[in-house]
Design goal:
Elements lengths: L2 H13 L3 H22 L1 H7 L1 H23 L7 E3 L40 E3 L5 E3 L12 E7 L1 E2 L6 E11 L2 E11 L5 E6 L10 E5 L4 E7 L11 E6 L4 E7 L2
Parallel strand pairs: 1-10
Antiparallel strand pairs: 2-3, 4-6, 5-12, 6-7, 7-10, 8-9, 8-11, 11-12
Length: about 250
């Protein structure tokens, strides 16, 4: 973890829980500093050397503004994304109107009016002439998409909140998708979604599924083919830039 990561962790774990008293103390110190500088006449020195003051202050303000925007702007920037559940047979588009993504968790069962994907089973007649439906066995049995495991999102701390559900779906034999639903997380720079071998959060061997698509909503991540699904115990939101955990969903 670099200096920025240490600073971010210190702020979220030590400063943010006590933000009100810390803010009051800082405001008093800043006001006292301005008053002291004025009484000592420091402002006159700045006015007497306007060109030097401008040469030093202008680049400093640019750097501070850009750095502050990069690190702080995600705190108030939000985004919502609603993607179809891969296990849904047909999608009623009206359930995705608006920004709340109010849709059922897990397998969404919607009546389908389309032609069945698999043909009717062949039938034969017994001695009495009653039709008998052949029961598929072995390779003839149709694969049923399923929820392999699921979990509830938990924030890393009071500042880094996360809520909603995480689902590990098998959509085809050997093909998996991670889906988040009713999801909301603290925004931040350089956020990625991982499958982690540690139920408690990010760990060595975590599998990168891609950048965080949105701070709110319901959306999917395809798991790369060949991944050993059984070794993963959680889904996490991880800040690569600062090496800081934002949220974890242990898979059960």
């Amino acid at each position: 973890m670099g200096f920025l990561g240490f600073f971010e962790e210190f702020f979220s774990e030590s400063v943010y829980p006590h933000r009100w008293p810390v803010g009051i103390v800082l405001a008093i110190l800043i006001a006292a500093g301005i008053y002291l500088a004025w009484r000592l006449g420091w402002h006159r020195a700045l006015l007497d050397h306007k060109r030097l003051t401008a040469v030093i202050a202008a680049p400093a303000l640019v750097v501070m503004s850009l750095g502050g925007y990069y690190t702080l702007s995600p705190l108030w920037q939000r985004s919502t994304l609603c993607e179809d559940n891969p296990l849904t047979l047909t999608v009623d588009e009206s359930q995705f109107e608006g920004d709340d993504c109010d849709q059922p968790a897990g397998v969404a069962i919607v009546e389908s009016t389309s032609t069945p994907a698999t043909p009717p089973r062949p039938t034969s007649a017994d001695a009495t002439g009653t039709p008998v439906i052949a029961t598929p066995t072995g390779d003839d049995a149709a694969f049923e998409p399923r929820v392999v495991s699921e979990g509830t999102w938990q924030g890393a701390d009071e500042f880094h909140f996360a809520e909603g559900k995480a689902l590990l779906l098998e959509t085809e034999p050997g093909k998996f998708v991670v889906r988040v639903e009713e999801f909301s997380v603290r925004n931040g720079p350089d956020l990625f979604v991982y499958l982690s071998p540690d139920a408690g959060g990010f760990a060595d061997g975590a599998l990168n599924l891609g950048t965080l698509k949105a701070t709110d909503g319901a959306f999917n991540y395809a798991v790369p083919e060949g991944a050993e699904i059984s070794q993963f115990k959680s889904v996490v939101v991880w800040c690569k830039q600062f090496a800081v955990l934002f949220g974890t969903a242990p898979l059960n």
